Structure formats: structure tokens, C-alpha cells
């Protein structure tokens, strides 16, 4: 006899099959919704000219549909989210950065050529001597605009006596409701109402700026001042060969597809421009331009020195403390161990900001102590050597707990029999240190030291919060400081330079990536991991 389901009266195995069927259909519906969403993103990016992002989501959507619809790929469904995340957040940004490094992408070359051309064609100018003086007269609940043109415009109209050509609008309400078109008609004289005061004109400026006044001759007038309207004429006209004619001074702008700018007849580049491929120019600038090569080489050398000295200092401090904590006669080891590891528990940005206050040249505790004891007040943030020393001191404080934990674990794994045998042979503490402890911990510690070197090689947070790269390197054509690392130097070029040279920053970032890849490969080799 079947055991029936209490709620539906169905056999248990049929209820289970229905549940599995509903689950399969729900999963298929979810996959279909994700695929449709990704295809919508592909279309949106394609319509906006972002073909790289469109290609990314097209590949992602296609792979999602294939993996989750074919039974032969069922085993790949569990690893697909990790691979998708790797592609979207690691591989694609890397390829995108490398692609930018071969272009002149910057704040001056940011838009597409079509948008740059449209921006130039959208520019207008005011014809000389074509302004209308206007006054707004109160009439009922609204106002009536009265315009008149004298002198040059009146003479063009054939009025040698200088009598003004006058126009007036119908009563209207000055409300900031967006662009509005208002028809003008000829007027014999000014309205008899009360004109608006200057403060009222200023208050209604936004509403007046949105008005487009049309004369009976079909001329469109726009507000050009608190007391004037004028016809704004298009400044540029497009020619069949793609160049632009400047209607104001009868010159021609020629598109230069090698530099990504419109160029005047005198050779002047006009911004904005558009991104173009420049090949290896950004990499060539790093090593050929003396204004970039000098700071780059200095920062490159300092980056290696900083990372190397940080690893050496943190290892030395951590190893010495770990050795002392293994001393049998030391009491209260647990308390000392907890206190020495505390810096590792405090978030790094909090510790860095605290040290920044302590090293303050005028009011910091460190300078107050040094001045009272030795009569000196070091310029930690303005002297390059002292600024670099400060970075090493702070980074040693932040990094020694990690080395302490590593050394404690490795020292505890050394068999005690070795030390007992050394004591029998007459070996002392120094002999044990150089003949037993160091040789046995250095080999397993080497890959971890390389990883620590790679981490400090890109230690952006320390530089950004403590010194900001200062003091600056004199004569550099890009933002560069004596305490900058390559990663902070790249950031400053991309986001703090006046030109925001994204292409040059991407080239430096690519070089950093190659260096880190080399360190990772060395780490794997030393760890005896076969790739």
C-alpha cells in the first residue's frame, strides 16, 4: 500500500517526481532570465559604441546558455560561476588595461570621433552687432517682453535715422519649465506696464534662458545677458571631406586621425579629441622621454628597495621576537604573544592615520619627544630621505606580526632533539641559530617572503594615506614623488594629472603586471609547484 501525501492525496514517489520537475523548470527559467538580461546588456553596450563590453557579455551569455543546457557539460556547472567571475573581474580588466596602453586615451581624448564632431557642430556664436536690448514689463499675472535693436541693425533695416526696430511678445508666465518657443510681433512702442526690477530679472534668469524667441523673419533669438537677446548662429559646418569650416573666421578644421584631434590651419590642436591607436608610443615615452624616464627609474628603484627592506626588517623583527618567545625561562609567554600580535588585528588604515599624526612635524608626539630629548625636530614629510625612512618604520610595525606568526610556527616544528644534540656537542645559542634554526626555516619561508615582497611592491594604501607620494620630484612632467611606488605613481598619472593620461598609466600598470607575474612564477618554482 502506498503512503499518500496528506495535502494532495498523491503517492510519495509521484510527489517527489513533481517536485524535481518543478525544480528543473525553475532552474531553466532562471538561466533563461540571466541569458536574456545578458543579451540586453550586449545590445545596450553595442548601441553605445562599447564593443569590448558587448563582446564580454556576449561570450558570458553564450557560455552560460551552453553550459546549463547541455547534459554533457553538467560537471562544469559547479565551476562556471568561479570561471565567470575570473573572466569578468580579472581577465577582462587586464586585457582592457593592456588595450588602453596602446592608445592615447586621456581626459583630452575621451569621446568618440562622432561625439567630438557633434560637439563642434553644436557650438554657436553671436553675430557682431546683432543684439536686441529687452525689458520685461509686468502685465496681469505675467510679463510681456519688449525688444528693440538700434545702430547697426537699424541701419541694415534701412532706418538711417537710427529709429529702433521693435518687437514684443504676448503676455507669458516666467516659469522654469524647460525650453519654450515664443513668437514675437512688431511693436510701435514699449508697453505701458511696470518694468521688472533687476533683482526680479536675476530671479527669473533661468526661465528667460530657456526661451527661444522667433521674429516674424524667422530669426531665433536667445538670451545672451540680463538685458539682451541675440541670434546665435552655428559656428561650424561639416564639409564633404570630413573637415569642419569655421563660419566665424572662415578657417578650416582638419581631423588628424594619428593624434585624435581636429587641427587648425596653424597646426593648433583643439580639444576635445578622440582615442586612437598609438602603438608602442606610451612604452617608448617611459624609457625615451627624459622628463618621464628620470622619475620612472627613480620610482622603479625605490619600489624594489622599499619592498626588499620591508621584508628584511619585518623578518628580522619577527624572527627575533619569535626566538625570544621560545625561551624556556621566559614567563608570561601568552601575554607577550597576545600583545605583540595586536598590531596585526588593528585595520591598517587606522594604524597609518595614527602614525601620520604622530609623525606630524609641528605637533606630533615623535617630534615632541625628540625635541625635548635631543633638541631636533625632523622634517618627516618634506625631506625625501626622512619620508622614506618613515615609510619603512611604519610598514615594519604593520608587517612584523605576520612574520612573527610564521617564524613561531616554523620554529616550533623543529625537533627539540637537534638542540639537545647541539648542547651535548657544546653548541651555544648562536651556533643553534646559524646551524639549526635559520637553515631549517628559511627554505619553507622563502615562498612566503616572495609573496610578502610582491604585496609590498604594490602597497598603495600605505603611500596614499601616509605621504601621498610627497615630497614631489622636481622637473617631472608627470605627478611623481620621492616616496611614490610604481602603483601610486600610476594612480597619480591616471587621476591626479591635469591631462589624466590613462594610456600612459595603463602602460606602466602593464609593466607592473609583468613584474608581479615574474615574482609569482619565481614563487611557484621555489615552492616546487609544477605549472
UniProtKB/TrEMBL annotation:
Coiled coil: none annotated. It is a multi-pass membrane protein. PROSITE patterns: ABC_TM1. It holds the Pfam family BPD_transp_1. Keywords: Cell inner membrane, Cell membrane, Membrane, Sugar transport, Transmembrane, Transmembrane helix, Transport. The chain crosses the membrane at residues 25-45, 51-68, 80-102, 299-322, 334-355, 390-411, 445-466, 502-524. It is found in: Cell inner membrane; Cell membrane. Residues 300-523 form the ABC transmembrane type-1 domain. Part of the ABC transporter complex MalEFGK involved in maltose/maltodextrin import. Probably responsible for the translocation of the substrate across the membrane. The complex is composed of two ATP-binding proteins (MalK), two transmembrane proteins (MalG and MalF) and a solute-binding protein (MalE). Belongs to the binding-protein-dependent transport system permease family. MalFG subfamily. This is Maltose/maltodextrin transport system permease protein. It comes from Halomonas flagellata. The gene is malF.
